[in-house]
Amino acid sequence: MRVVRTGAAAVAATAAKGGLMAGRAKYLKWMYANRLLWSVLRYLLLIGLAFLILYPLLVKLSNSFMSRQDLIDGTVRFIPRQATWFNYETVIEYTSFFQGLANTFGISFMSGALQMLVCTMVGYGLARFNFKGKGIVFTLVVLTILIPPQTYMISLYMKFSFFDLFGLISAVTGGTVRLMDSVWPMAVLSIIGFGFKNGLYILIMRQYFKGIPKELEEAAYVDGSGLFRTFGRIILPISFSMMVTIFLFSFSWQWTDSFYSSMFFSQVKLLSNSLMTGFEGLMLEGATVGLKNGQPLTATLTNTMSLLVIAPLILLYLFAQKSLVEGIEHSGIVG
Amino acid sequence: MIKRSAAFGKKRISFTVTQKRDLMGWVFVSPFVLGFLLLFLGIFIDSFRFSFMEVNVLSQGGYSAKFIGFDNFHQILRVDPNFNRQLYGAVQNMLFDIPIIVMYSLFIAVLLNQKMKGRAIFRAIFFVPVILATGIVDKADLGNSIMNAYQSIPGLDTGIAEVTESAGGMFSSLQLKRYMFQMFDFSPALVNITVGAAENIYDVVSHSGVQILIFLAGLQAISTSIYESAKIEGCSGWESFWKITFPLISPLILVNIIYSVIDSFTGSNNQIMDRITAAMKLGQYGTASAMAWIYFLVAAVFLIVIGLFVSRFVFYQNRE
């Protein structure tokens, strides 16, 4: 695309200089037609795929504005006849949405930041140092992505219900600590690089560091910069876009996670827990029985909640993707 | 110290210095190693032991375990009529999906990296599958009457859109196959792959969000000055993709292949994973562990073979 454009510009420049020749003008026209065709094709493709991705969400969106009359009216399909904020108001009130939002944000931000730093560190260690046993460590990293946490759920639960650090805590206090319903289980898992799909993040960082030239660090070493200073001042800035990506992964997966949330934070108000609990049994004003599963209104409220869970992440991404463009330009790396 | 060794260039000293520095690698990987020892090793050993045992959960808490040798494995591989078939199916799906997913996601990442109007919006839309990857919305949608009603619109949910629906009067997938045979003289394997890809387009789209994001971040790391100098030398867009983008992104192609293999093996729509978690929930830890070990060994073998094969083509800027 870019190449084509400058090709056209170059042709235009020479054409202006040497007088318009018929052949060149024809070539120019062909270039523009080509460019136009390509951009039309590109938009067609992207819009089509975007529709495929968004279709379920669009259904939820139109559904979330429907009033109760619309839900039982068979002629209402996509566009609500009596649009209402009722569903949003009910959901926000019933799930104490803003409290859940704050809690979820706190936990997601903490694990995102910790996992980002730890995985970058481990990835750097695996990419740049030739110590003995590196192969084994790397194999173990890949292995941990392969084994999903569902298969060792019970051990994990026991570990954090009766938490002990190599027998140190029970030696001092005479008993183990129960860490459930605090941020500690996630913090511990993040610090040791065993959060959700952390092996993947380590793998990404390792491959990324292997791909960038060593000269920068070597120059820093020659200038007398120490190992950790080089890591902090040189390596971290040039891997900015990768780190943002990892942060986005772990933040949004913690945000929408139901596995760890239901295990570690069953008593904490989290968005994902509220969504999984659903709206069965909700008593509406003027009703004598609570909502039942399978009723249109229950489903509508779940749809509304799904949208409310997803929306902040999309907003976050819209901001973060700017740094996915400028990452390398900050770093000042040339060639 | 490093400076001195560089200045004097003494072979012996510089060797010990780099060796010392290499030992510092342990400091960098220490969080992971510590975590492995603290958390994972025990789980590993337990599940390995359980796979040779009959485990019964006792009602008053705790469990009893009896060593029964290879009986669990024998049961799964020889007696169970479904396991081998499901294992074969999982491998087949994986081999079929990986090339399509990786090629598609690289293509989309390159598209989303070009300058155009509305790029931020498109990027955000292609980020949605990443958010949905944890499956929470799917879980919440189980038994969702409204979503079910809307997804009865033919083909939209499964993505078997126009290709199989002959309603539009275009092609059915069978006709499409026949045309491809007759008109273009494609080989049958190629025809099956392309038609299969078209039919699975929704699966491909929803399973490649992570890969697209990884590629997108990797593309940022390629310095624009390389493209500029290539342009000045008269390199076309096609050439600069194959000569610049492709080699420089190849380390991440390896990541994405590994991730796609794992995702395909451990994804929630995988029958064997369902069986393992179901057996876990029923408290049949012996069978579940044995099944998990067989399954993960098969997955690991494929991972190693594919990883070694692909890594021969990966280009790193520093050769060691």
TrEMBL record, chain A:
The answer on whether this UniProt entry bears the keyword Endoplasmic reticulum reads no
Where does the record place it? Cell membrane
CDD domains the record matches: TM_PBP2
Q: Which UniProt keywords apply?
A: Cell membrane, Membrane, Transmembrane, Transmembrane helix, Transport
Q: What is its main location?
A: membrane
Q: How does it sit in the membrane?
A: Multi-pass membrane protein
Q: Name one GO biological process term.
A: transmembrane transport
Keyword field contains Transmembrane helix: yes
Every copy of the ABC transmembrane type-1 domain together lies at 101-320
SUPFAM superfamilies in the record:
MetI-like
Q: Where are the transmembrane segments?
A: 36-58, 105-124, 136-158, 183-204, 234-255, 301-320
Which top-level group of life is the source organism from? Bacteria
A Pfam family matched in the record:
BPD_transp_1
Q: Which family does it belong to?
A: Belongs to the binding-protein-dependent transport system permease family.
Q: What is this protein called?
A: Carbohydrate ABC transporter permease
Q: Which organism is it from?
A: Paenibacillus arenilitoris
TrEMBL record, chain B:
Which Pfam families is this protein grouped with? Answer: BPD_transp_1 (PF00528)
Out of the domains of life, which is the source? Bacteria
Task: Give the location in the cell.
Answer: Cell membrane
Query: Which keywords fit this entry according to its UniProt record?
Result: Cell membrane, Membrane, Transmembrane, Transmembrane helix, Transport
Cell membrane found in the keyword field: yes
Parts of the chain that traverse the membrane:
21-45, 94-113, 120-137, 210-229, 241-262, 292-315
Q: Which GO terms describe its biological process?
A: transmembrane transport
Family membership noted in the UniProt record = Belongs to the binding-protein-dependent transport system permease family.
The name under which this protein is listed is Sugar ABC transporter permease
